[in-house]
Amino acid sequence: MKCLVTGSAGFIGSHLCERLVRDGHEVVGIDGFIPYYPRAVKERNLARLKSEPRFTQHRLDLRTDALGPALDGVEAIFHLAGMPGLTQSWTDFDAYQSCNLTATHRLLEAVKKADRLKRFIFASTSSVYGQFSTGDEIMPTRPASPYGVTKLAAEHLCHSYQAFDLPLVVLRFFSVYGPRQRPDMGYFRFINAMLEDQPITVFGDGLQVRGNTYIDDCIDATALALNAPVGETYNLGGSETASVWDILQKLERILGRRAAIYRESARPGDQRSTFADTSKLRRHLGWQPKVILDDGLERQVAWQKSAYFRPLIAAAKAWSASAAAPH
Ligand SMILES: NC(=O)c1ccc[n+]([C@@H]2O[C@H](COP(=O)([O-])OP(=O)(O)OC[C@H]3O[C@@H](n4cnc5c(N)ncnc54)[C@H](O)[C@@H]3O)[C@@H](O)[C@H]2O)c1
User: Fold this and answer.
1) Which of 122, 174, 243, 276 has the fewest CB atoms lying closer than 10 Å?
2) Residue 326 falls inside a structural domain
3) pLDDT, tens digit (0-9, with 9 covering 90-100), for 240-250
4) Distance 171 CA to ligand 1 centre (A)
């Protein structure tokens, strides 16, 4: 099958492209290398794919560039491109509304008449539920951040294109972690700070709880969504929850050193608890998470310690020392 993955140079998108290629699909990637984290990190994410004959990468901004040629003959679309993370969404709303909403709208318009399209899989988030995101798909959606609002609006926009027979499946991801995790995400920051003997900033009381999803489990479910019934929405999350303190304790054990903690007040809109009831995903697609948190964290630590990874830290430092390029 010919598959398009938007956000192909990102954390989840690059893993998904590798998996789809391994499964024998022809894969087209689109990514605009939007500079909310360093381009060098995204280039690294794509490194293994560059030599794959069944993979083609297009550097395109979904908000502005012509999409037609990249979409030619595509039978399945995994739409992962977007501005993730809630903190910046309070200060850079334009980037969030344009990358999450305008970009999605342009993609939907471009595929409106694609009669070969079998599935359009939209990557949404637990943030559509808001501060308390523990339960199944019928939880009320009350996003508590501009990020969650733009992702929920994008979900609704996708649903509206079912008027044009869009074969839509929505996946709501819950806190994905593992190798290539984005540098703004908590576990990445915790591990890096501990490796560099720097203090870790804990926001609020540290009792906020996450239902974490290991990247391989996330990718398994996303690939299976090619067979999901059209029109369905699924929570996608792991089988364990952990508070910030639980995670720090596990990292101290894995790294064999104590974390130095610096406390700050809670961030506006931060989720208090997330845990996906994934019964529907299990029932419909036979999926279940396989990687336990202890193993997943060990794998992320190994990646952040590896020679493959360390040069990225230098790139990230140089990048954050200079002003981030405008979006
Ligand atoms: N990582 C998580 O825990 C998590 C949780 C919930 C939902 N999600 C969703 O999953 C998706 C992927 O997340 P991620 O963590 O891999 O993020 P990521 O930032 O690593 O990847 C997203 C990619 O999309 C690209 N992109 C953004 N706007 C674009 C545009 N206008 N045109 C072209 N490319 C554009 C970026 O350059 C980036 O490489 C996002 O839609 C995010 O909202 C992620």
Assistant:
1) 243
2) no
3) 999 999 999 99
4) 13
**pTM recorded for the entire structure:** 0.95
Active site residues: 147
In a domain, 25, yes or no: yes
Ligand 1 near 11 CB (within 6 A): yes
State how far the Cα of 73 lies from the Cα of 17, in Å rounded to an integer: 17
Calpha distance 133→274 (Å, rounded):
4
Number of compact structural domains in the chain: 1
Report DSSP letters for 115-139, one per residue: TT--EEEEEEEGGGT-SEEEE-TTS
Do 130 and 143 touch, CB atoms closer than 8 A? yes
Q: What is the CATH number of the domain that holds 183?
A: 3.40.50.720
Query: Is residue 81 domain-resident?
Result: yes
Please write the tens of the pLDDT for every residue from 250-286.
999 999 999 999 999 999 989 999 999 999 999 999 9
Q: Ligand 1 centroid vs 13 CA: distance in angstroms?
A: 7
CB distance 86 to ligand 1 below 6 Å = no
